[in-house]
Structure formats: C-alpha cells, structure tokens
C-alpha cells in the first residue's frame, strides 16, 4: 500500500479578479521510505500543492482525493485531522520558515509551545532531545535565542520542529533557499540521512540539481498542473515533456556550454485552460496542442503532452 496517493487534486484561491487555479488535477503516489521532488518555476503551484497535502488552505481544495496511510484525509473534519494527522503524521517545513522563529523566546520555549499546541503528554525533554539529535544539533542550542544562531542552524531547528512528533511524512518547501552553498550542502546531507532512517518526504524546489541528489520520484509542475511525473532516473535521462527538457537544458554546466533558456512567460493562473498550458512557449507544438492533453503513461509515471498520444 502506498503511503501517499493523490488523485485528481485541485486547489484554488479567491481573488478580486476571480478564482486562481493554483493546482489543477494533480496525481501521484509515494511509497513508504521514498522521497519525491516537486520542481517548476515560481508561481507554478508547488507550494500550494504542499499546503493542500497538510490541509492549510481554508476551503481552497475544490476536488480530488488525498489518501494518506490508508485514510482519506479530505473526508476528515478539521479537528480530527488536527488531532490525529497534522504534525503527528504529516508535517511541513514552510518556505522561509527559519525567519519565522520568535525572537523573544528561546528555542526550547518554542519547542514546548508546539508540544502544548498538539496536546503532547509524554516526556517533553526526551522528545525534544531526540528531535535535536536527528538534525545533529547540540542541546545547548535550546537555551539560545534565534538571533544567536546562524542561518544553517536556524534552518535545522525548523526541520527539528517538523520532526518533533515523529511524523511519517515531511513536506520541505524550499529548505535551501537563501542559504550559502556550504549550508545548502549541510541541509541536503541532513535530508539524505533522514531518508536512510526511513523518513518519507516531499522536497519542493526550483533547483533540479538539488533533486538529482535526493529524490526517488519527481513531479514537474507548470501552470498549476503536474505535466510530468516519474522516477528520478527517467526524468533526468529521458525527459518527455518539452517543459521538462527546457528546465534541464537551462541548468548551467561545468563544461562551459551555454544554457538554453525557455522563452516567454508562464500562463496566468486566473484562466481556466482550454489548451496545453505550455503551448505559447513550446518549440514542438502542433495543432493538437490547442486541446487539453490527458495523461499518457510512461515507463514509471505519466506525461501530459500530445506528442506521446501514440504511446498511450
């Protein structure tokens, strides 16, 4: 049984100009102990997908199913999900979260606040110690205030908070953004270590180079839709969707080859699409692309592109 199965998930935001179709008909599965990377340009729906999985969008999920550990979490009441799943089985490292630590409380006090919020009645000292050890932080850090910690230490504290109640699945939204290269490497090595210990997680990023080191499966988001999904090996060695190919070709290389950038701008999420989202930027578009493409099966997943219609 898959740990996480997402089927036809759609999420929208309300705006003064109308609904924003941030996530549209997303499907994927993740087994226990696996990691999935979600990649794409800014404002393509990556973070909204993560927030949807932890039910942090008030009324924003419009259709679809999320089956986690055999439970349909969208059918639960908010109180039941909060009591049994949020932070206990599914947790999240939010984008820019290291800047959200309260400057007037020690790290220890902020850990205790989480335990109080979720009604933890066990040994608080031990569970906090376990979380700190899992991210290789000395317990002396607990006595300090956020301003006394480096950026890398604050990010590890945030990850420790996400691990505090020993969840089965952690969503990490851009955990290496705004960190220098050495600290980024520390965070990636930490995630690798957690993966070896059996943790399942989702890594949301615009950096495909980072995902190549850590993800078992990859979902490519564009215009609110997952346009390609498959194993990490297939995505990197045999990318199908022209957008995936464009992303990979835009990565700078050490051999000095000039990266090829994707021309144009992403589509507005205010419009409910009636054609392929990538049509206006695609160098391989054909007449059929004026219709919405369904999912076409690949070796390890699927692709939404009419070029693979004959391989369905």
TrEMBL record:
PROSITE patterns reported for this sequence: ABC_TRANSPORTER_1, ABC_TRANSPORTER_2
Keywords annotated in UniProt: ATP-binding, Nucleotide-binding, Transport
A Gene Ontology BP annotation from the UniProt entry: peptide transport
Any one GO molecular function term: ATP hydrolysis activity
Domain ABC transporter as annotated: residue spans: 4-248
InterPro entries linked: AAA+_ATPase, ABC_transporter-like_ATP-bd, ABC_transporter-like_CS, Oligopep_ABC_C, P-loop_NTPase
Membrane-spanning intervals of the chain: none
Taxonomy, superkingdom: Archaea
Pfam families tied to this protein: ABC_tran (PF00005), oligo_HPY (PF08352)
Keyword check for Acyltransferase: no
Keyword Nucleotide-binding attributed: yes
Name under which the protein is recorded: Oligopeptide/dipeptide ABC transporter ATPase
Species per Swiss-Prot/TrEMBL record: Candidatus Nitrosopumilus sediminis
């Amino acid at each position: 049984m898959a740990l996480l199965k997402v089927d036809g998930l759609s999420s929208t935001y309300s705006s003064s100009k109308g609904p924003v179709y941030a996530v549209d008909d997303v499907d994927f599965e993740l087994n226990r102990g696996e990691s999935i990377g979600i990649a794409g340009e800014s404002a393509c729906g990556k973070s909204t997908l993560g927030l949807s999985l932890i039910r942090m969008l008030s009324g924003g999920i419009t259709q679809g199913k999320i089956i986690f550990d055999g439970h349909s979490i969208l059918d639960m009441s908010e109180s039941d999900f909060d009591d049994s799943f949020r932070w206990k089985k599914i947790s999240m490292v939010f984008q820019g979260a290291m800047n959200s630590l309260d400057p007037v409380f020690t790290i220890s006090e902020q850990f205790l606040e989480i335990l109080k919020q979720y009604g933890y009645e066990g040994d608080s000292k031990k569970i906090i110690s376990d979380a700190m050890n899992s991210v290789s932080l000395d317990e002396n850090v607990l006595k300090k205030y956020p301003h006394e910690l480096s950026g890398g230490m604050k990010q590890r504290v945030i990850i420790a908070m996400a691990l505090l109640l020993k969840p089965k699945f952690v969503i990490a939204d851009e955990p290496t953004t705004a960190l220098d290269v050495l600290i980024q490497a520390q965070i990636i090595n930490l995630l690798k270590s957690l993966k070896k210990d059996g943790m399942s997680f989702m890594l949301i990023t615009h950096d495909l180079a980072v995902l190549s080191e850590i993800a078992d499966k990859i979902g490519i988001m564009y215009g609110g839709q997952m346009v390609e999904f498959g194993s990490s090996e297939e995505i990197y060695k045999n990318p199908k969707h022209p957008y995936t190919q464009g992303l990979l070709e835009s990565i700078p290389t050490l051999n000095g080859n000039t990266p090829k950038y994707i021309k144009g701008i992403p589509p507005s999420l205010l419009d409910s699409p009636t054609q392929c989202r990538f049509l206006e930027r695609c160098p391989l578009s054909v007449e059929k692309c004026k219709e919405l493409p369904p999912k076409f099966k690949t070796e390890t997943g699927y692709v939404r592109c009419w070029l693979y219609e004959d391989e369905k």
